[in-house]
């Protein structure tokens, strides 16, 4: 009655399931295109990488995991998350692992449980379920595997069939790990992504970030004009190092042009820590337009990630810092907010702007209609909380009828959890297969079309949208 | 495994599909009620209508088609869309058709692909798929059919079993085509709809529109009072010409009463091109209430279409004009916005107010609760981007539990693409059948109820909501 | 083909249905936990309760029923709803019942129709459908049953297997009915809930409410300080009377701390009927934080019900008063609005804050991410318009992947219609079984997990979330 493992995430209906199997078979072994994510390049630049313990690998870096445990009253200290003040945290990783397994039932029905189940099984060969009873056995098995050469990041890269992996890097990064990779005799394609948030979004420490920008660009950034020049220089450097894309995060999708005079004035205030919140909002909105202009000129694909209210829990921020699972989505607006940018570049064939968002209501109402009209616009795949079986189905349900699939950017895993990469792509490929299968059995598309579309969704669209064909 | 054509848009589950077939069989051949749409009355007033080429018929007037092609970088000039400045556009319709077919894969999964597939097959007898290879063969077949008397608009009207077709007409129209129709010996029921947007929504050219209003009404419109009198005169004229409804488009559902003094002041400013955006917003909000008041008095059903941000792409507007596929939805609000109007007329049995919107979130949150309470309010069918298989399912899913189906206005096709009318109604009838079938097989309604409901959805509700029984 | 009664609300797919049956079998006979609702305690405090007629039981108190009839032009007077001015209303309950049955088709597809069908069948043994023809026969059967001792509220309480039932009571209530219950020799567990809206939300009559508060608390409430003391006293009293929870309704989820000085100033203005709407909004936002603080101290679970724009129809309010089916949801926001409260108490293990809302878009975007992070926060079940088969499915679909089920509060029926309680729980148990069954057959969870989860959803989560284990 219950699903076999091979058919997971496929509908129970026999016709749909059979069709989903057929479609999935065509893509399950295709190489992985990973054009956006947060894998640490040191994993791959290191000849020999030390994974640490299973907890170092799977728990401490994964805010999906510890946010849920936190929500049920488990302290981050007890999960070994390092405190900013260096205060005491649990050091016994076996004990942490036991705590996680004791509470693993919390993850029932979540994508985290699917990814980890697949990782354990497919990568580490562990078939057991994470339970209190199994905790130490699983820990042992994992710890043992992590020592083996076959589990070194580069070996996994090959085993995962990653065709290209993009990291995300600060605009001020010297990309030293990427340089090491280029200098090495290993030939996996790992490329940087230009992420200038820290030098574009005005917040405490901005002046220090600009100082860093001066330093790495070797351009004395003293005003708005030299600031732009330095950014252009960094983009050039990133391109030389293989980047094909930029990435920008903002709370809202607001765009709006400032006069050169206004931009200069806000920049100067920001350098003296005197910019207001409204200054910051307007500056970011202006710089998104400037970044689009630079993309038109240098060809870097532009990504924007909109709608996360970061660091919602001030106590956690104070004790542990950023990215601690306390980022909460907010309602977003694109129709009015993106208009100033689109007025300038929306129909420019040189711009490719990929939009990610955390407000699902904008898909059918704003983003699919926008992407179904403007040549420059593409919809990014479902992001973060929506990178899930049901999230993907809703994404297809609310975008394809208006925008088709050819105004989307395929899939990207957006993960910092390196071993979860194959599992995440597999969920996408399975859900895509199942969604197309339903379209076929309901007579909306025919099999011939579905056969094309599944390869587009699983592989081609990402490659093409991020200009990775080269 | 895949769906047969006869079962399209029905669930794959055998029980549900069987029930859907049974329900659909009861309505598939019922006459079509077309109470709202944008068919050009000249098609039907002309004794002999010249369709032009297949591109004139299917591409140039259809913004659903060219918006998608535009989104992938195809210039509207290359699709033969006429420029406002008379600049060069592609004149070779065979070449245009080839371009469309070369890119037809873009429409996979969209309602446009379903409609056109059905039109080719059911109206023109063309079973082939639109592909690069088939393009010229299909063009030939279409061109040949369009010359035949059987494909004349009046013959199609009869073949489609259209019981009544409402056009949409400017308040200043003299309805000359409708007069021709009344004077002809052809007896298809074609009626006008009173659409006063151009004389109600203050925008550039308003004074000229009011001059036209004076002219056609033979009332010297010099102030707010004569303006209302002229509008009442036009409504009377439209009613005499068979109209049963009005139609109003607005960006927001804002309603709010102005004092006579304020209304006069704004009107006068507007006549001198001196009205502000806020003036315009308040005037439209006031006039929606005035129009409701007039509907209470003269019995015309009132339609409002809310939420489209028109002409989002200024470059396209400048080159090609309005309705070029660059209209983008925005978030809408009804609970507060409609309250002033509903306070006055929401429980008046003489008012019938049908609401259309482009923000699906308002269905479960605002519109179904409002329609499930106020006697005057009815939900229009899913509009524009949501006139689709999945759009309709979401509409039923989010409205029926709160409002039932008897506070809805059934279906209307809202199309300017005359030959797509049967296909659009067929999608609705099929999706309705399938949705009710699911309700039956899940034990929510019984077959007896479903048998009533399917006829209501496919035929009776539209006829009754638009007072077309006469 | 159609569903048998035993399988209602289960998917038609045979695998999913079989699994749903298996899961449902484990919970269908579990006791009912009713931690939030509006049952009149007099039903149960009375040794012998007089139900009145079938119309007194099923129509006059049920705004779900009469709102729909009103929406189709039936006057509330004709349904026997009492007018505030004592004006004439229909007194012939047989005639009212006939009117209801004549229009029962309006409820096709609504939860009201499901609940009433189940009530008639399971409680009163009436298998007939409510139709014009059957109206009087059903009336006779109901009237006859209502006279029987077996249909007395206390006997139904036992027959329904209610383990605990919470009523909702004004902060100024002396809980006399609850005292009677405690003094009686009947041992059903009926507990009060502290609902201080009338003494917290500033509106006309506030001073009178505060006077009442002084009277029942025996604390002379003359300023903000004594006001807080009196509220604390009432909470203590409610706890002594068995309460485990409070409940708060507000249009928005706005929270924000006032200085003691500001709170005092607004309080004094309110006492003199001089508070503005903005005063009221800020005072409610402040008091929600104060109430959270008190919950931290006294352990009462805190419920908030957000988003209903009450009494939308002024004419109905004037003629019939509140709760007349004219409450309309509005868009809600939680990420920013709850932050001030969560900054203070969101991670406090002593607080349990259960959130209900009427804007489904907030589930995936705000509430599930918030509940999946903050220890204090739990999601209430789908409320009001969404306490329905499809509403529950959407709730699971949009919350579980992010928050899991262990950050939810299980089910509560929230009803004033006492005999509908079992039907409402049964819908939840069936839809939960079916939803989990789908997760199993699609390979997302395994059967072992589903077996735990169904009991959690049907029984344990509500008991634990409302601290009813004692």
Structure description:
The structure is a homotrimer of 470-residue chains. The termini of chain A are far apart. Chain A is 49% helix and 8% strand. Chain A has two domains: 5-49 and 152-465, TIM Barrel (Alpha-Beta Barrel); 51-148, uronate isomerase, domain 2, chain A, CATH 1.10.2020.10. In chain A, β10 (353-357), α17 and β11 form a beta-alpha-beta unit. The first copy, chain A, is globular. Chain A is of the alpha/beta class. Chains A and B meet through α1, α16, α17, α18 and α19 of A and α4, α6, α15, β9 and α18 of B.
What's the layout of helices and strands?
The structure is a homotrimer of 470-residue chains.
Chain A: H1 14-27, E1 32-34, H2 42-45, H3 54-58, H4 63-71, H5 93-102, H6 111-123, H7 135-147, H8 153-159, E2 162-166, E3 169-170, H9 176-183, E4 190-191, E5 194-195, H10 197-200, H11 206-217, H12 224-240, E6 245-250, H13 260-271, H14 277-298, E7 301-306, E8 308-309, H15 314-320, E9 328-329, H16 339-345, E10 353-357, H17 361-371, E11 377-379, H18 389-403, H19 421-441, H20 447-465
Parallel strand pairs in A: 1-2, 2-4, 3-5, 6-7, 7-10, 10-11
Antiparallel strand pairs in A: 8-9
Helix pairs in contact in A: 1-19, 1-20, 6-19, 11-12, 13-14, 14-16, 17-18, 18-19, 19-20
